[in-house]
What does this fold into?
Amino acid sequence: MKQAWYRESLVYQIYPRSFQDSNGDGIGDLPGILSRIPYLQELGVDVVWLSPVYASPNDDNGYDISDYRDIHPDFGTMEDMKRLIGALHAAKIKIVMDLVVNHTSDEHPWFQASRRGEEPYKNFYHWQPKKRNWTSFFGGEAWTYDDVRKEYYLHLFSKKQPDLNWDHPQVMVEVQNIMRFWLDLGIDGFRCDVINLIGKETGDPNGRFSPILCGIEHYLNHPKTHRYLQTIRDEVISKYDCFTVGETGFVNPDTAMQYVDEDIRELDMLFQFEHMGVDNYYVKWFMRKFKPIRLKKNLSEWQHAMHQHGWNALYLENHDQPRSISRFGDPKYHEQSAKMLATMMFFQQGTPFVYQGQELGMPNASFEHLEEYRDIETKNIYKTGKKLGFSHRRMMKKIRMMSRDNARTPMPWDNTVYAGFSKAEPWISFTPGWETRNVQNESADKKSVLAFYRKLIQLRKHSKTIHYGDYQDIDFGNPTFYAYRRMLDQDEWIIVCNFSNKPHPLPNYANWSDFNLVLSNEENQEMMSPYGARVYQKK
Ligand code: TEU
Ligand code: CA
It folds into this structure.
């Protein structure tokens, strides 16, 4: 496998609205992020990924962009952005921005011109005189009637996020110019939002009937998408020292390879979602009991599939997902299971992404009342659920487990009022428990989840074996243990994770006297403790 800086990097995702407020309006901002660079350095972060900070009416927290070359006043100014890029680079931290080009905001001037039928924007979006039966990812219909144009337009997400028509040659030109604009400002790459949905066939009449994701066969991994991405790589990406990570729902290892194969490299890596589905059926609102074996089988499959040919983006959390400890861990063994999950992920092959607060072991916010939630998806799903006849109680139970707001709460820095996040009440409440689970406390505690993450990050940073070595499953059929080996030349590591709330004897995976225990989350090493994790390296 060819070596590359982004294959040896740890990426830290910042959700700017909830990271650090600098001016007392309760909303995180760019100067706030700048002030926390020392924290990022101490953690060992190589690359920061910023969720969108562009001008936006904020229907979907910035994933609805009205000007790709400007900063939302909530977050600061373009000058603040330039200062942040400079300060991060001075601290030897790279920065990746979100590229959201499947859709724009309906308030973007292109859409405004398009609905009035003005050229060259008339066909920048998908318009149809007749309605289609497609459904939106956020619940409800995906085609909405526009009073001005007197036609229906497509929005796979909210009504205020009309989908761009990539068949229009000028759309491709505009996107390339936006990318160059940011790369020329010095950024180091893009996280490409829902990028496997950009190519579409909207002339087709209806979708094959399905109450959820109806119409998906007209746009998922469309051959046109591959052509668009190849063009973008040739015209833009290949001319800069940068990388791209695609957000690609509904891919499997085969379809993923069509994007990331070494010889194709439309994207450098991608976020797959299969392992986010191990506690639900098809869409997250249909929940099922979490079984560790499903997670293990899936992660292992991706390890094998990408090895030597592609590259994984490793993650357990982001701004769209519930907190991993609340899904795959055990609240009774909170710290222990948070560290175990981190260990499981950190020694696999791929680029690890840590989402803000994950390194503190933050659980779901699980707000009690619907009014406490801010996310458009949560609000829409509640309405959709009620229409389908689900009770309020049933819907709130789902939302407490699966709402995206579970992970969008402010970063708890200390135990002063508003947790050192702001001088004012934040735009969304804190995750309960912040008085103790915060950066200040965890920094002072050698046994904290944060201290453990710092160790993991350092261990990984210095090991070529972890970056590029072979991966091999151990005791694959075991439903409670996830164990694997990483090997390069003479170097060998064995990772053992106990996914159960019971102690177990350490299995005979090796002649243990030939190995050093380099890291563990346990107090006592006689038995593997509940949610114990161990990292061994051959002497
Ligand atoms: O997410 C795409 C996506 O697939 C999610 O909307 C997913 O369906 C949902 O979060 C599951 O709960 C990206 C962004 O990450 C997300 O924040 C945006 O809302 C969305 O695209 C639209 O831009
Ligand atoms: Ca602010």
The longest helix spans residues 169-184. The chain has 15 helices and 20 strands. The two ends are 25 Å apart (CA to CA).
